[in-house]
Predict the 3D structure of the following.
Amino acid sequence: MTMSAKTLLDISDLVRSELRGHLSDDVCIDRVTSEVLPTSDGEEYVRTTVVLEDGHPELDPYVLNEFSYLIHLICDTRGFNAPSIAYSDKSELP
């Protein structure tokens, strides 16, 4: 999978803008990054990491699953590879 830095940035921006409408106002997004990583069988995939400010309320897994489905549809219509999304608190990262 060849993917430009601009495409990865576009995916990150898309996830950030769409996710904002699915999270409560108490959840603040610090940053969103996307990268291409290898799978165990030698293929590649896009992983998007959403870094949240510490102290947010518990995320609703049903909302996250719904968002994942939605972002896959949007990415398909825009010709992007749909990302696998990981969520992390800011304090969990170096």
Q: What stands out?
A: Residues 32 and 50 are 5 Å apart (CA to CA). The beta strands are 29-38, 44-52, 84-89.
